[in-house]
Design a protein that fits this description.
By secondary structure, the protein is of the alpha/beta class. Helix content is 31%, strand content 23%. The protein folds into two domains: 207 residues, ANL, N-terminal domain (Rossmann fold, 3-Layer(aba) Sandwich); 99 residues, GMP Synthetase, Chain A, domain 3, CATH 3.30.300. Helix 3 links the parallel strand 3 and strand 4. Helix 1 packs across helix 8 and helix 4 crosses helix 5.
């Protein structure tokens, strides 16, 4: 059965994403907006973000960027990332973020879907992108975040001489026009390009703002890459709320703790409808739901119902107080006989063992049972044995959740840049045995 939020309705915005953010930051002046903790605390004020973004838009307009054109943004978190992003959006362009660590083939797979006309690329990835350009027909121009003697750099695009070229009359339909084309994680196959409209993003922020109360004096810290939804969302949130964002290119515990101490940072963090306290897949509906997957109507139809409900892929339940709990991912659940085993639950249990450093759990095929849970374990101490782990799991969880697929000790659990366990890699490791 559908559950409606107990919170009041949110007043949505008709503005484009760039207009929305420009409106929020234009009067914040010399207040610090962004701090890059990875390069000694270099910063930008809100005025600098505002001016540089609009100048960048002026340059891009003169360079031939038109409404609806897609522009790649292939860079780690940086002060230049939001400037390029807002510059593209202000022209009516569509931003498609890209992991700068990707290979030529991985970038090509994404660009064959989104077909970018231009790309901003981090200086360290230039050679990779040059090879991508040679192999794709759509990519006409490259701009460099960093230094280059071969291509136009960001620093050359943000001068005040381009302020008069800012595109003032771009008509954006916030509900229909796409703003961002991020990519799905590819957990169950190749990544798909997610079409997010301007309203999808602004409404997500407004829903968040009206339900979680933080002031504009708060300072946020993010080690999530801006090309990923987690880092991108943190950027949108901090700019829209007038908050200082301290960014880090890579996670390191000591660096994060020093940043918290220095900046006083706050902590973040069957198809049948079910009733309260019944576990099942969570479907959601609202203005924040994506438009679909670009160039993939079949995947869109499988994900979004005809009446606008999106299959989140999350498993959870709603309690008697209307609080929603998310407990696992549908596509990661292990099917043991007729029972469902949660990898996350197993991982949480195993991590309680004092001799376990890290763990990842997958299901491996079994002719009789369907799948068997298998754990890849990183030892905290050398004398940890498989029998130790098995005995511990038996003391914590029901019989059908036991590690019948075995235990394998490894040096490291493969994870994405955002800390997500790469279960596809674990399955490859299991298949090689």
């Amino acid at each position: 059965m559908p559950f409606r939020s107990h919170l009041p309705d949110v007043q949505l915005s008709e503005k484009s994403l760039s207009e929305f953010i420009f409106h929020q930051i234009k009067d914040l002046g010399d207040k610090i907006a962004l701090v890059d903790n990875s390069i000694g605390g270099k910063s930008l004020t809100f005025k600098q973000v505002y001016d540089q973004s609009r100048n960048c838009a002026g340059y891009l307009r003169e360079a031939g960027l038109d409404k609806g054109d897609v522009v790649g943004l292939c860079s780690p978190s940086s002060l230049e990332f939001p400037v390029a992003m807002l510059g593209i959006l202000a022209c009516g362009g569509v931003v498609t973020p890209c992991n700068p660590a990707y290979s030529v083939e991985e970038i090509l797979q994404q660009f064959q879907i989104s077909k970018p006309k231009m790309v901003f690329v981090y200086e360290d990835c230039l050679n990779t992108m040059k090879e991508v350009q040679r192999k794709t027909d759509s990519l006409e121009k490259m701009f460099i975040i960093g230094e280059s003697n071969e291509f136009i750099t960001m620093s050359e695009m943000i001068g005040d001489e381009y302020s008069e070229d800012f595109p003032k009359y771009i008509s954006i339909n916030s509900d229909k026009d796409v703003a961002i084309l991020p990519y799905s994680s590819g957990t169950t196959g190749l990544p798909k390009s997610v079409m997010l409209s301007h309203r999808n993003i602004t409404s997500s922020f407004l829903i968040f703002r009206d339900s979680v109360h933080h002031g504009n004096s708060d300072i946020l810290y993010s080690d999530r890459p801006m090309y990923h939804a987690g880092g991108f969302w943190g950027l949108i949130r901090s700019l829209s709320m007038g908050q200082k964002l301290v960014l880090e290119k890579e996670f390191d515990t000591e660096t994060m703790l020093r940043a918290i101490e220095k900046y006083k940072i706050i902590d973040l963090l069957t198809g049948k409808e079910l009733s309260e306290n019944k576990t099942g897949e969570i479907l959601a509906q609202g203005p924040q739901v994506m438009k679909g997957y670009m160039g993939n109507p079949d995947a869109t139809a499988r994900t979004i119902t005809k009446d606008g409900w999106i299959h989140t892929g999350d498993i959870g339940y709603v309690d008697n107080d209307g609080i929603l709990y998310i407990i696992d991912r549908l596509k990661e659940v292990i099917k043991y006989k007729s029972l469902q085993v949660s990898p996350a639950e197993l991982e949480s249990a195993i991590l309680k063992h004092p001799k376990v450093m890290d763990v990842g759990v997958i299901g491996i095929p079994d002719t009789y049972a369907g799948e068997l849970p298998k754990a890849f374990v990183v030892k905290k101490v050398d004398n940890l044995t498989k029998d130790d782990v098995n005995a511990f799991v038996k003391s914590e969880l029901a019989d059908y959740k036991q590690l019948r697929g075995g235990i394998e000790f490894v040096k490291k659990i493969p994870k994405s840049a955002t800390g997500k366990i790469q279960r596809i890699e674990l399955k490859k490791m299991a298949g090689n045995k």
